[in-house]
Amino acid sequence: MTAETNNVVIFPDIRRRNVLQSLEEVISHVEENRKEHIQYLVDDISDYVLQRAEVEGFHVTSEEHAKSTLLFIESMRAMLYSSARIKHPLHKITEQFILADSEKEED
């Protein structure tokens, strides 16, 4: 049989080189995978929302609105991290802001 008539595909011998050894490593690995998934989701959602806002006549992608746009994107990431029980710096800021805001309403 010649190479041209041989249609057998030989897969490389891939073995898992980094076998996770401890529960901490497994948890860390799962968390990193969740973070990566959240990043893809945030990218998709924010692209859609920002493009839709532009179509509706809101120029949120201009330099003038960059900080607000970045805060919006980071807030989505913090929300999804919270749902996945992953810590994010905005969680603490949000707690302080919401508490301060609700105390003002009580007065």
Report on this model:
- This protein is an all-alpha fold.
- It has one domain.
- It contains three helices and no strands.
Q: What topology emerges from the helices and strands here?
A:
Layout: H1 23-55, H2 66-83, H3 89-106
Helix pairs in contact: 1-2
* Apparent shape: flat
Total number of domains: 1
Largest sheet data? none
Q: What count of helical segments does DSSP give?
A: 3
User: Can you count the beta strands?
Assistant: 0
Percent of sequence in beta strands: under 5%
Fraction of residues in helix: 55-70%
Give me the strand/helix succession: HHH
- In the predicted model, the low-confidence regions spanning at least 5 consecutive residues are none
Class derived from helix and strand content: mainly alpha
Termini gap: 88 Å
Rg result: 23 Å
Mean pLDDT over all positions: 85
Give a quick summary of the entry:
The protein has 107 residues and is an all-alpha fold.
